[in-house]
């Protein structure tokens, strides 16, 4: 799963001028998810032939995802499957009725304030993931999950295959200086593990997770964009940038009424 030069959020094609993780596809490397993540959602565009992005259930009728995943779509064009490790079946299916981009979101070259909230057409009876209370220090273990593509090269096929089953890998929070063109006030840098595992095209919008004191998952990031310096981004071997939902907790609460 690696955020590539243009996380071509929607279709896996590089979006000119944006180095986002929409293209951060399937986890490159990693392993099949070995536990349940009932808050994990896959975003679909029914009129398109492929999987779109990840998202997380943060309330019974609201999803959190990356702004660049949904900025070019109307809410009614999107659907979500929530709570299933298989993005094609199971879980709960819902239509999206409202899309709210962060008011400071800017696409341009790099997605800034890369946050979006999606309202479901009706609530789901599944546990939501809690947003962490504070940002994390470098060296903190984090887990990345998603259905992004498994090919490490950015240009590895006109229609890259995305796995049906959810994948995961573990990494560490990095220092801001380890990522290129990151805004430490609203972004979190994640350093690549020695194994080369990475997010990739299709992983955008999915979460970076940590365990709380009771062992429950909390969200500290949203897969956003490539954080390395390579001219042609590939999946694996360089850091990635995750939008930090902790930094916009007030906006999230005001929007969803929490």
Automatic annotation (TrEMBL):
<keyword id="KW-0645">Protease</keyword>
<dbReference type="GO" id="GO:0006508">
    <property type="term" value="P:proteolysis"/>
</dbReference>
<dbReference type="InterPro" id="IPR001254">
    <property type="entry name" value="Trypsin_dom"/>
</dbReference>
<dbReference type="Pfam" id="PF00089">
    <property type="entry name" value="Trypsin"/>
</dbReference>
<dbReference type="InterPro" id="IPR051333">
    <property type="entry name" value="CLIP_Serine_Protease"/>
</dbReference>
<protein>
    <submittedName>
        <fullName>Serine protease</fullName>
    </submittedName>
</protein>
<feature type="domain" description="Peptidase S1">
    <location>
        <begin position="27"/>
        <end position="257"/>
    </location>
</feature>
<dbReference type="InterPro" id="IPR043504">
    <property type="entry name" value="Peptidase_S1_PA_chymotrypsin"/>
</dbReference>
<keyword id="KW-0378">Hydrolase</keyword>
<dbReference type="InterPro" id="IPR018114">
    <property type="entry name" value="TRYPSIN_HIS"/>
</dbReference>
<keyword id="KW-1015">Disulfide bond</keyword>
<dbReference type="GO" id="GO:0004252">
    <property type="term" value="F:serine-type endopeptidase activity"/>
</dbReference>
<dbReference type="InterPro" id="IPR009003">
    <property type="entry name" value="Peptidase_S1_PA"/>
</dbReference>
<feature type="signal peptide">
    <location>
        <begin position="1"/>
        <end position="21"/>
    </location>
</feature>
<dbReference type="InterPro" id="IPR001314">
    <property type="entry name" value="Peptidase_S1A"/>
</dbReference>
<keyword id="KW-0732">Signal</keyword>
